[in-house]
């Protein structure tokens, strides 16, 4: 009987220890905020080869920087958590949230009804409008309306608004969508396409990063793309019913509009040319 009681006591202690270790593991997991992004969509996010004062290391190698990284840092700081940026393809972001590989998507992603079927979104953390980038020596460099692009070959990023708005251009040659933005910029620089669609900060950043080679179109009022502001705003993606949602929302709300604008200007000023 004593042996049985002793064995039970030992087993209880072992189980208690295991339970404690399990709880510690859970708490340890919660201390790191895992944020998914492409690290390939400047000025929102891009990859650096070397460390600097603004980027963060990637487990896959290299470093990630950009506006999204700056926002992620502020969110993690507010939540008193360590930041881990996870680099992944655009199409893997939502799946990774739902498989618990990441906690948040901060990747220049727009809140859409279709995406809301799979995940939740915070309030927007940046708002913009749509435009077109062209080569500075192009016949389209002085365009002021969508009609001016009639007959032009225009490309956008696969699975995004950048691709779907192209059909608003009359008689456009809608080029095959490309997987990421650096591919679009290369296609534009090499003359494969006449223009690529972009939100204004993305366009400004890529123009700045490529010297005098590219220019950003400024449409006259009422002559550009017809998009709702909600279509060109970006929000933080998070798993449905996540216990982090309210804290993330509050952390985001603590970042003033002035701070957000400055963070975007800073990101656009330091993004590399044709990052991969």
Summarize the structure.
The chain is an alpha/beta fold and 276 residues long. It has helices spanning 2-30, 67-78, 93-98, 113-116, 161-164, 181-189, 200-209, 245-253, 257-270, and strands spanning 32-37, 46-48, 56-57, 63-65, 82-87, 104-105, 120-127, 130-135, 153-155, 173-174, 195-199, 214-216, 233-238.
What does this molecule look like?
- With 276 residues, this protein is α/β, with parallel strands linked by helices.
- It folds into 2 domains: 30-127 and 232-270, Periplasmic binding protein-like II (D-Maltodextrin-Binding Protein, domain 2, 3-Layer(aba) Sandwich); 130-229, D-Maltodextrin-Binding Protein, domain 2.
- 35% of the residues lie in helices and 20% in strands.
- It has helices spanning 2-30, 67-78, 93-98, 113-116, 161-164, 181-189, 200-209, 245-253, 257-270, and strands spanning 32-37, 46-48, 56-57, 63-65, 82-87, 104-105, 120-127, 130-135, 153-155, 173-174, 195-199, 214-216, 233-238.
- The protein has a 5-stranded mixed beta sheet. Strands 10-9-11-8-12 form a 5-stranded mixed beta sheet, with helices on one face. Strands 2-4-3 form a 3-stranded antiparallel beta sheet.
- A hairpin with a 5-residue loop joins strand 3 and strand 4 (63-65).
- Helix 2 (67-78) packs across helix 8 and helix 7 (200-209) packs parallel to helix 9.
- The longest helix has 29 residues, at 2-30.
- The radius of gyration is 23 Å and the shape is globular.
- Mean pLDDT is 88; it is low at 1-28.
